[in-house]
Design a protein that fits this description.
about 375 residues; Creatine Amidinohydrolase, Chain A, domain 1; Creatine Amidinohydrolase; 17 strands; about 35% helix
């Protein structure tokens, strides 16, 4: 599908700025270079999108150059794909891509590795160079990627708006007797019609007791009168994700659910209120659990209560840094984007997840999408 959205793609100028920052880190660490695999980090820094396989394809970034390392028969394909200018070097089927990379690095040069590289390729590099020359480049990459630019935030916002509209269409569609598989298919169609990259990236549709399983149940379900409904879905726009969850009933009257829903909403708001520049990520998780404990839920990860972290970062990956979890002392900074979803699970009864995302500004937190209004009013 051709690009028709009013939000522009990430420009080559922005990618060059990302590379400049990465090169500053490379030089500060005294590295010969960093090797990007066929990961979202390759896309982030160079614009090249490639799916991993047993054949290595990636890019070596040095203080002065980008060199793409490509299987010989894929060169013509790579040349047709968007990417920043750089030399393309090929390796043939009987050759070692690891050996080619290390010849480029030179004798004794230290090489940092994309933390998304598969283990088998690490072993191939270590067999040629020795493990002592290799280091984890994940920290260099993640420190840069977790701070989003205005352009990235605009793409995420567009994707969130699109998915929120799909959620509203689902709410209007739902009625007793509908199968969860029908809803999943509908969500994918509507995402595609709205111009998402490849339809839905995922869709979890759960009814009744299945809502107590955070990532859904196997098999098809049929919505019964009065059952709790959980819909969690997202899409991508120019690679950037949306991810929104709503939990509700079509009609009021379920007092146990309504009481629990309001606790969930209180915990979600507590996460937002705790999101301040400089605050450790762990303090947001703590804020959610404090609300639950006040209502005799938990403590810790005990059920009924919150069985997982309160949120995750989002960008080119649907789960990335920063993680809103105990033990994470990373201070919040402007440009960080993350989910706010302190789910409450009542085993074998129902679960409630309200998931909206936050982006940090110098003045504090902002919602990408505004939270739900009530247990039978999933939109503000």
């Amino acid at each position: 599908m051709s690009w028709q959205h009013p939000v522009p793609r990430i420009t080559d100028d922005e990618k060059q700025l990302r590379l400049s920052r990465l090169r500053e880190r490379i030089e500060a660490e005294g590295l010969a270079g960093i090797l990007l695999g066929p990961t979202e980090s390759l896309r982030y820094f160079t614009g090249l999108v490639w799916h991993p396989s047993e054949r290595f394809l990636g890019a070596l970034v040095t203080p002065t150059a980008i060199v793409y390392i490509v299987p010989g028969f894929e060169r013509s394909r790579v040349e047709t794909l968007p990417h920043l200018p750089g030399e393309i070097l090929v390796w043939e089927e009987e050759e070692s891509s690891a050996a080619l990379i290390l010849r480029l690095v030179g004798q004794g040069g230290a090489l940092a590795l994309d933390d998304g590289l598969p283990l088998f390729f690490y072993h191939a590099l270590a067999a040629v160079a020795g493990a002592e020359r290799l280091s984890d480049g994940g920290r260099l990459i993640r420190d840069l990627r977790r701070i989003k630019s205005d352009a990235e935030i605009a793409l995420i916002q567009y994707a969130m708006n699109l998915t929120l509209d799909v959620h509203k269409q689902v709410h209007a569609l739902l009625k007793p007797g509908l199968r969860s598989s029908e809803v999943v298919d509908f969500i994918d169609r509507q995402h595609r019609l709205a111009g998402a990259d490849d339809g839905s990236t995922f869709a979890i549709v759960s009814f009744g007791a299945a809502t107590s399983l955070p990532h859904g149940a196997d098999g098809d379900q049929i919505l019964a009168e009065g059952e709790v409904i959980l819909v969690d879905t997202g899409c991508r726009i120019d690679g950037y994700h949306s991810d929104i969850t709503r939990t509700y009933v079509l009609d009021g009257g379920n007092s146990a659910f309504e009481r629990a829903w309001r606790i969930e909403r209180e915990a979600q708001q507590a996460v937002f209120d705790a999101a301040r520049i400089g605050a450790p990520c762990s303090s947001l998780d703590d804020a959610a659990r404090k609300v639950l404990a006040k209502h005799s839920l938990g403590p810790d990860y005990r059920l009924p209560g919150l069985p997982h972290r309160a949120g995750h970062g989002l960008g080119l990956e649907i789960h990335e840094e920063p993680y809103i979890v105990r033990g994470n002392d990373t201070p919040l900074a402007a440009g960080m984007c993350f989910s706010d979803e302190p789910m409450i699970v009542f085993p074998e009864k129902f679960g409630i997840r309200l998931e909206d995302h936050i982006y940090m500004t110098a003045e504090g937190p902002r919602w990408f999408t505004h939270p739900a209004t009530g247990p039978s009013e999933p939109f503000s």
